[in-house]
């Protein structure tokens, strides 16, 4: 099967594909959101994973970023470098995983690229939208705000599937003072949020996934829950984990003790 044949197959359910670019009318009174995420063999998955799972996961990671901004996903570009071991069945399975999640979230496949490499590489670019000026940012947390997460944590060892928290993200519009998704571990991502907001934080309780340890919940990556703050008088969904404080920007404390902002850092993992 060649590239044109793969594209013809995709066009059956993705009518935006076919020209050199997808042509999309700009939405009125909305800001557009753009995000892109790599999924790389040996880094994000192994070839032992089912192709449906790899496709689903690749899209879910980008959808989680749209959720973190309070947005709704609109269009998706999927680029993939195939390898010698990705046969037709594999490719069909991969796109099945991609499309199932796109359909569930009403996101249209609008294009992408197909190439080949020694290692399977996939890049998912997502475009979403949010009411003008309403996107949830990392920089709005203020001392006294309560910190929440959208679900229990524990990292990649305890998480079999990513569920992008799109619904909860949209509910936070106009309510949360800051928001992001937890991809690299609570400690590191909360540190990033606090740096952006120029505040410090005190964590007092962390909800754990079944079997997870507090260490894993603080420092392992791939939870993909939302992390957000709100004024104490504001009612928001989620689980309270602590409070925003004055202090050195980015400083973290857990039960009164200093907590190091250690998490998953791709540039530290190169070997
Ligand atoms: Mg993110």
Molecular structure report:
Helix 2 (51-68) packs parallel to helix 3. The two termini are 35 Å apart. The chain has two domains: 3-131, 60s Ribosomal Protein L30, Chain: A, CATH 3.30.1330.10; 146-256, Phosphoribosyl-aminoimidazole Synthetase, Chain A, domain 2, CATH 3.90.650. A hairpin with a 2-residue loop joins strand 10 (252-254) and strand 11. The mean pLDDT is 94. The strands form two sheets. Strands 6-8-5-9-7-10-11 form a seven-stranded mixed beta sheet. It is built from six helices and eleven strands. By secondary structure, the chain is an alpha+beta fold. It has helices at 3-11, 51-68, 88-104, 166-171, 186-197, 214-219; strands spanning 30-40, 72-82, 108-116, 121-131, 146-149, 176-181, 200-203, 226-230, 239-245, 252-254, 257-259.
Whole-angstrom Rg: 19 Å
Give the strand line-up of the largest sheet.
6-8-5-9-7-10-11
Reported CATH architecture of the largest domain: 2-Layer Sandwich
* Number of distinct helices: 6
The ordered string of helix (H) and strand (E) elements is HEHEHEEEHEHEHEEEE
Please describe the biggest sheet, giving its number of strands, its sense, and whether it closes into a barrel: 7 strands, mixed
Q: Please tell me what the overall shape is.
A: globular
What is shown here, in short?
The chain has 271 residues and is α+β, with helices and mostly antiparallel strands.
For this entry, give a set of tags:
binds magnesium ion; 11 strands; 271 residues; 7-stranded mixed β-sheet; Phosphoribosyl-aminoimidazole Synthetase, Chain A, domain 2; 2 domains; single chain; 60s Ribosomal Protein L30, Chain: A; alpha+beta
